[in-house]
From TrEMBL:
<feature type="binding site">
    <location>
        <position position="184"/>
    </location>
    <ligand>
        <name>Mg(2+)</name>
    </ligand>
</feature>
<dbReference type="GO" id="GO:0031683">
    <property type="term" value="F:G-protein beta/gamma-subunit complex binding"/>
</dbReference>
<dbReference type="InterPro" id="IPR027417">
    <property type="entry name" value="P-loop_NTPase"/>
</dbReference>
<keyword id="KW-0460">Magnesium</keyword>
<keyword id="KW-0547">Nucleotide-binding</keyword>
<dbReference type="GO" id="GO:0005737">
    <property type="term" value="C:cytoplasm"/>
</dbReference>
<keyword id="KW-0807">Transducer</keyword>
<feature type="binding site">
    <location>
        <begin position="272"/>
        <end position="275"/>
    </location>
    <ligand>
        <name>GTP</name>
    </ligand>
</feature>
<dbReference type="GO" id="GO:0007188">
    <property type="term" value="P:adenylate cyclase-modulating G protein-coupled receptor signaling pathway"/>
</dbReference>
<dbReference type="GO" id="GO:0005525">
    <property type="term" value="F:GTP binding"/>
</dbReference>
<dbReference type="GO" id="GO:0001664">
    <property type="term" value="F:G protein-coupled receptor binding"/>
</dbReference>
<feature type="binding site">
    <location>
        <begin position="48"/>
        <end position="53"/>
    </location>
    <ligand>
        <name>GTP</name>
    </ligand>
</feature>
<feature type="binding site">
    <location>
        <position position="328"/>
    </location>
    <ligand>
        <name>GTP</name>
    </ligand>
</feature>
<keyword id="KW-0342">GTP-binding</keyword>
<dbReference type="GO" id="GO:0046872">
    <property type="term" value="F:metal ion binding"/>
</dbReference>
<dbReference type="GO" id="GO:0003924">
    <property type="term" value="F:GTPase activity"/>
</dbReference>
<dbReference type="InterPro" id="IPR011025">
    <property type="entry name" value="GproteinA_insert"/>
</dbReference>
């Protein structure tokens, strides 16, 4: 009996030691496997190119209704109200700069918009003023100068929907949330699983002041997704209203593509805001930004030309992995183009993925 007991004790002690080692081995193996199956994509691009919109869509696609809490959704009411007021104020300032005159009624509506405290929600009265203004001739004249001033791309959406925003019990819809604009500062990481890979998408602020922080996120990157605002060929920067947005995007793209640690990193390009681009192209050809362009103002011709200008900024021996022309405001555009990126990266890393899967016996 005694011997059995002692045998059991020593056996048990040995097993514990072994188990500890085995647990540690398993844990390390697990970590190595997890790291091998963890893909980080860095989202880069100038301010307002649509990086955060792409992220919002990816969250919707991969997490569905669970992508936001009720509180998060409700917090967008305030954002949309502020976006609406600020967009109208931009146009009111433009009326002053371009000496556009207003009637007495329009002046009163403008004063009410100017006096609104941004910490408060808009009322029905504010909505009536905004609606009166954006249908008025002076504001139409100011909008005609949109390519010379900083003007938010979703402004028309805010004006069109202003009455809905102030309805009693209003809850922002998925589309409202997509069109809402919050300027990103710092870094936001979004994770989702698409087995066997765990994807981590890093979103950063795009304005010039924010770009100094980017280098901190350059390690261990499987891919770079660079977002370009196509409508930028006909727009100036928020932070420097003398600089064309498309030229800024080209310069920034070249700098990123030439960072030595990205020498072998796949670079994907999303040319975004195709909807606005098509609208602008009806009024102005891209030769205003690319004097060497001799083609017609035809969408596909112009898009191919722009894509080529970006491709040319790549360093020797490194080509853009793939290019998509999208409107990130539409979920399906982001879904299909991101599927392509996933497919590309899974194929490129297939060997590493297989090895990791084998090590966990799958
Ligand atoms: N018209 C239009 N607006 C868009 C599109 N994608 C994004 N936006 C709007 O552009 C603004 C800036 O987008 P955001 O994602 O914040 O840009 P970021 O600074 O690069 O993160 C937001 O108000 C978006 O709703 C698009 O495809 N079409
Ligand atoms: Mg952003």
């Amino acid at each position: 009996m005694g011997s059995t007991f002692s045998l059991c004790r020593s056996d048990h002690a040995l097993t514990t030691e072994e188990q500890k080692t085995r647990d540690l081995d398993n844990m390390l193996q697990h970590e190595r496997t997890a790291a091998a199956l963890d893909f980080k994509i860095l989202l880069l691009g100038a301010g307002e190119s649509g990086k955060s919109t792409v992220i919002k869509q990816l969250r919707n696609i991969h997490r569905g209704k669970a992508s936001m809490t009720k509180e998060e959704i409700e917090s967008y009411t305030n954002v949309l109200h502020t976006n609406t007021i600020q967009s109208m104020r931009v146009l009111l300032r433009a009326c002053e700069s371009f000496n556009i005159e207003m009637t007495k009624d329009e002046q009163e509506a403008a004063a009410a918009v100017d006096e609104h405290d941004e910490n408060e929600l808009m009322t029905l009265d504010h909505a009536i003023h905004i609606d009166l203004l954006w249908r008025s001739q002076p504001i139409k004249d100011a909008i005609a100068h949109r390519h010379e001033i900083y003007f938010p791309d979703a402004a028309m959406y805010y004006f069109q929907n202003v009455f809905r925003f102030v309805e009693l019990g209003y809850v922002p819809s998925e589309e409202d949330i997509i069109m809402a604009r919050i300027r990103t500062t710092g870094m936001f990481m979004t994770n989702f699983d698409s087995p066997p890979v765990h994807w981590r998408i890093v979103d950063v602020g795009g304005q010039r002041s924010e770009r100094k922080k980017w280098i901190k996120f350059f390690d261990d990157v499987q891919g770079i997704l660079f977002v370009v605002n196509l409508a930028g060929y006909n727009q100036v920067l928020f932070e420097d209203q003398t600089k064309n947005r498309m030229n800024e995007a080209l310069d920034l793209f070249e700098k990123i593509a030439k960072v030595p640690c990205f020498e072998n990193t796949p670079i994907f390009l999303f040319f975004n805001k195709k909807d606005l681009f098509e609208e602008f192209l009806r009024g102005k050809n891209i030769d205003c930004c690319f004097p060497d362009y001799k083609g017609k103002p035809e969408t596909q011709l112009a898009l191919n030309y722009i894509a080529e200008q970006f491709e040319r900024r790549m360093p020797k021996n490194h080509r853009v992995a793939n290019v998509h022309f999208i409107a990130a405001r539409y979920k399906k555009d982001v879904k299909y183009s991101f599927e392509d990126i996933k497919k590309y990266l899974v194929q490129k890393n297939q060997h590493k993925i297989n090895k990791a899967m084998k090590s966990i016996g799958r």
